[in-house]
Design brief:
Length: 387
C-alpha cells in the first residue's frame, strides 16, 4: 500500500497495517511506558516509551511518506521539534532565517539559542541575493518559512536551497502553512522539513505536536538520539489523533483552498477592505511563484480593513461563525488580529517594517459553508464601517 505515490492513499495507509495481534484496522493507542523483554536485551523493538512507541512510530512513518522523506521524528510541539533540530548545531554556528518567521520560532532563535552562542541573521528571503549575502563561513543552517505569516510572502524554495547547498548549509523548510499537499520542499532541494502538526496536519484544533523529516540518514540518526536524549516526545494519544487527522488531510486541504480562493476574490470587492493578501490573487506580487511552487495557494488570507484598530476590533467582535482565536488549520474558521494577538511580541517598528499594520486581519478558512463564511464577514465589515 505504502508504495503508492498518491498522497491521498499514503495519508490513509502509509506506515500502517492491521494490528498483527488482533486484526484491528486502525493503529492501536499503545499507552505502556515499558515493554517486556524475553531476556536482557531481547526485545521486540521497543524497550522504554521515550525511546520508541508503536503508535508514534506509525505516525512518523506516515508523515515521512507524505513529505517524501526516509525518516520522520515526532515531538510534543512544533517548538519542541525546532528546538531539538537546533541542538544539532554547536556554539559558533550561524543561522540565516526569513525575516517574518513564526513568532515562537523567532523567540527560540533569539532568546534560547543566541545566548548559547548560535547567532541568527534574519533577511527578506524573497530576495535570494540577500540570503547569499547574509551567509558566512559559519553558516550551518538556512531557516525558511513559506508562505510567511501573516504577510503570506512566498520564498522560492528551490532557489534558496541551491544557495544553501553551495554554501554547505542545511536547508530547513517550515512547511506548516502549506502542508505536503501544496508543496513538498524535499523535492525542491531542501534537506529538512518541519511542521507544527498542531495546525493542518492534525486539523481539528485538539492536539499540540511537531515533526522533523529528512532523507539524510546521518542527520536522522542524530535527531533520533536527541529525541530520546532530550525527551520532548508526543504522547501516544496525541500521535493517534494526528494519525487520524492525516487521513482526511487531502480532502480537507482541497476544501480549505477552494473556499479561501473564493473568499479572497470576494473580499477584494467589499467596501471597507483596503487590500487582500492571498497568493492565488493576480494582485499578489509572487503569483507566478505560487503557481510554480504550490499545488494551490492555501487556506490562509490576510486583509486590511479601513479604519485601523477600532474598525478591526469591531470586525473581530462581530463575527459569529469565525472564532476570534490564534492558531490555524483546523476544520473551524478562525480570525485574528496579528498586531495584538499572534505578533504582539514583535516590536512595533519591526511590525511596521513587515507591513503588519493595525488594520491587518488574518483568517484561517475552515470547512463551513462558504456562503455562511461570506455572510459572517459581510456583517462584520458593516460593523467595522459603522465605527
Ligand atoms: C504554530 C507554528 C509553529 C509552532 O508550533 P507549536 O506546535 O505551536 O509549538 C511553528 N511554525 C509555524 C509556521 C506555526 O504556525
Amino acid at each position: 500500500m505504502a508504495d503508492s505515490t498518491h498522497l491521498e492513499t499514503l495519508a490513509i495507509h502509509a506506515g500502517q497495517s492491521p494490528d498483527p495481534t488482533s486484526g484491528a484496522v486502525m493503529t492501536p493507542i499503545v499507552l505502556a511506558s515499558t515493554f517486556a523483554q524475553d531476556g536482557p536485551g531481547k526485545h521486540k523493538g521497543f524497550e522504554y516509551a521515550r525511546t520508541g512507541n508503536p503508535t508514534r512510530n506509525t505516525l512518523e512513518r506516515c508523515l515521512a511518506a507524505l513529505e517524501g522523506a526516509d525518516h520522520g521524528v515526532c515531538f510534543s510541539s512544533g517548538c519542541a521539534a525546532m528546538t531539538t533540530l537546533l541542538h544539532t548545531l554547536r556554539p559558533g554556528d550561524h543561522i540565516v532565517a526569513s525575516d517574518d518567521v513564526y513568532g515562537g520560532s523567532f523567540r527560540i532563535l533569539d532568546k534560547v539559542f543566541r545566548p548559547l552562542g548560535i547567532e541568527t541573521t534574519q533577511v527578506d528571503m524573497t530576495d535570494v541575493a540577500a540570503v547569499e549575502a547574509a551567509m558566512t563561513p559559519a553558516t550551518k543552517m538556512l531557516w525558511v518559512e513559506t508562505p510567511t505569516n501573516p504577510m503570506l510572502k512566498l520564498i522560492d524554495i528551490a532557489a534558496v536551497a541551491a544557495v544553501g547547498k553551495a554554501g554547505g548549509a542545511t536547508v530547513v523548510v517550515d512547511n506548516t502553512f502549506a502542508t505536503p499537499m501544496l508543496q513538498r520542499p524535499l523535492s525542491l532541494g531542501a534537506d529538512v522539513v518541519m511542521h507544527s502538526t498542531t495546525k493542518y496536519l492534525n486539523g481539528h484544533s485538539d492536539v499540540v505536536g511537531g515533526v522533523v523529516m529528512t532523507s539524510d540518514a546521518a542527520l536522522a540518526e542524530r535527531l533520533r538520539f536527541l529525541q530520546n536524549a532530550i525527551g520532548a516526545i508526543p504522547g501516544p494519544f496525541d500521535c493517534y489523533l494526528v494519525l487520524r487527522g492525516l487521513k482526511t488531510l487531502p480532502v480537507r486541504m482541497e476544501r480549505h483552498c477552494k473556499s479561501a480562493a473564493s473568499i479572497a476574490a470576494w473580499l477584494g470587492a467589499q467596501p471597507g477592505v483596503e487590500r487582500v493578501i492571498y497568493p492565488g490573487l493576480a494582485s499578489h506580487p509572487q503569483k507566478a511563484l505560487a503557481d510554480r511552487q504550490m499545488a494551490a495557494p492555501g487556506g490562509m488570507i490576510s486583509f486590511v480593513v479601513a479604519g485601523g484598530l477600532p474598525a478591526a476590533s469591531a470586525l473581530l467582535a462581530t463575527v459569529k461563525v469565525f472564532v476570534c482565536a490564534e492558531s490555524l488549520g483546523g476544520v473551524e474558521s478562525l480570525i485574528e488580529h496579528p498586531a495584538i494577538m499572534t505578533h504582539g511580541s514583535v516590536p512595533p517598528e519591526a511590525r511596521a517594517a513587515l507591513g503588519i499594520d493595525d488594520g491587518l486581519i488574518r483568517i484561517s478558512v475552515g470547512l463551513e459553508a462558504e456562503a455562511d463564511l461570506k455572510a459572517d464577514l459581510e456583517a462584520a465589515l458593516a460593523a467595522a464601517r459603522a465605527v
